[in-house]
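Lecture notes, structural biology module. Today: joint structure prediction for complexes of two components.
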Amino acid sequence: MRKGSGAVGVRDVAVAAGVSAMTVSRALRGIDGVSEATRQRIASLAAEMGYVPDGTARALAVGETRLIGISVPNLFNDVFADILGGMRRALHLAGHPSIIDTTDYDPSRELDWVERMTVWRPAALVLTGCDHDPGLAPILTRARLPVAEVWDVRTDPIDFCVGVDHLAAGETLGRHALSLGYRAPAFVGPRPGRDRRADQRAEGIAMAFAGIAPLARIVAEEDSAFVAGHRGMAQVLSGEKRDAVFFHNDNTAFGGLMAAEAAGLDVPGDIGVVGFNRLDLTRVLSRPLTTLETPRRQIGQMAAAHLLARLNGVTPPRVTRLECRLIEGGTLRRVAP
Amino acid sequence: MRKGSGAVGVRDVAVAAGVSAMTVSRALRGIDGVSEATRQRIASLAAEMGYVPDGTARALAVGETRLIGISVPNLFNDVFADILGGMRRALHLAGHPSIIDTTDYDPSRELDWVERMTVWRPAALVLTGCDHDPGLAPILTRARLPVAEVWDVRTDPIDFCVGVDHLAAGETLGRHALSLGYRAPAFVGPRPGRDRRADQRAEGIAMAFAGIAPLARIVAEEDSAFVAGHRGMAQVLSGEKRDAVFFHNDNTAFGGLMAAEAAGLDVPGDIGVVGFNRLDLTRVLSRPLTTLETPRRQIGQMAAAHLLARLNGVTPPRVTRLECRLIEGGTLRRVAP
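The predicted structure, tokenised, for the full assembly:
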């Protein structure tokens, strides 16, 4: 039932799915006459079994084996735009076109995308972060694809990862505020579980304050980070008194600054504000934001360099952890503890 | 030499290129042994001649004929993120995966991308704006692909377009400032020729002031729109006195506001500031920015709806011009003319 090369064929998928080879063929070609549910089941099964269409036909048809697929949570975010900017330019110069898809932080959408992409036999894939659907790693390992995980780091990447340690990032910011005398911290960000990097940073801040003060966590999710920050700060101000508010990122922090201003409060006189990333916006503020600069373009460039090395038979380091830089800014001050 | 269907085959391309069919095949498959220059020449020629790989092999190989390719200038820009957000969700729900590429406002990169994409035989393409390399329309017409041009409008789209009239947008903003008594306008934006939409808006503003006052055009290009706006405003302030500064977009305008503040000027007391788009940032500012709200998500949604209609045999209107909304805001005031 298998082709000479030992590869999985249409018939293998048909047997596994309990349908005819013709149905598998129609389903995978997107031809009508197969229900959507069946089509999806067959496509999943085909991807799971490592089915790839005949190599020669595929290469001739697609005319492209240098393609690199990149998956990011969304495009609204300057962070991913910076990482992509650094990465795609390097890949492009090396003759690798890349295509992008977005997951909206949904592991099942990321999995769908990987299943679709592997059928196209790209040269490599790039994934954002290190948390994926459990079904994802086996598919990639079976496809023997080089895979870069970027932005986050973990000790056991699928292939290799390039990013920053978000727990340590949170701890750096927390310790800085603590050393200035702040004792009533709050964190404004997405609901726990949505964005593991945000969760890790919140945990890092909490660790810095452990045994001294609890970290209040305020959930603020809006289409716009600015609006989320504004509402998050309003919520902080309506509750028990807090002296320093850590925001999910700089855009959220800017929304918080505007909400404090609207409430007649002075920052840092009445309340401290801390961002994350040092996004472009912070480069023009009259009072610089206290934040942590993340090496986003460098992550993109290094991930590209490692991928290109990998494609040329050189094994890159499995874990590349890049340093962040504390920007002391002017939205925290020394307070009497 | 041609296949039964009248389609262009590998041999036709080989004859035209003066090489063997094997070389064409190797070149299009990205196999080594063909110089990069030759590969590019053959790929261009193949695209130009309308060569597409054998349909059945292609469909079986790619397993995907529902793919929609989308090209945008960049991903750093909230405008394109909004348009894409509105569009991709609708396409996704209709079972059309979409992939994105960026052109960095370079028509030759857009052309390259279209050439690459047409070989993949997507269901449709989406292009940003209506200004393309002259070689682009013939390729798309020959490929008989549905094509949506979004964000800008023109009377003779390749297939159909959905967007706003940027000339009229500029004129609306210019007339508003004029009616308030402003008489010394400046425009801060990219160099003429880089972004036709910006050029059109500048022209619209100039039209509003025609015969009354000339529009000073200040070029400010930086990686960051915020920084560009900051520097642009600094440049305006260092020159002949201006009373109203129109910015390329709201993020640039915010940079300008910060530069005015840094120079000790009050807005709108000492100088007026006008943005464009009503980006998210403006939703949290204490003093609302005078700007024009563009229907970005609606453009994306309508372009998707028209594409889906088109794919189902319904011809959409060739030109769909959506309205913008003036946000009077607080960064212009009534001045004695």
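Point to remember: The radius of gyration of chain A is 24 Å.
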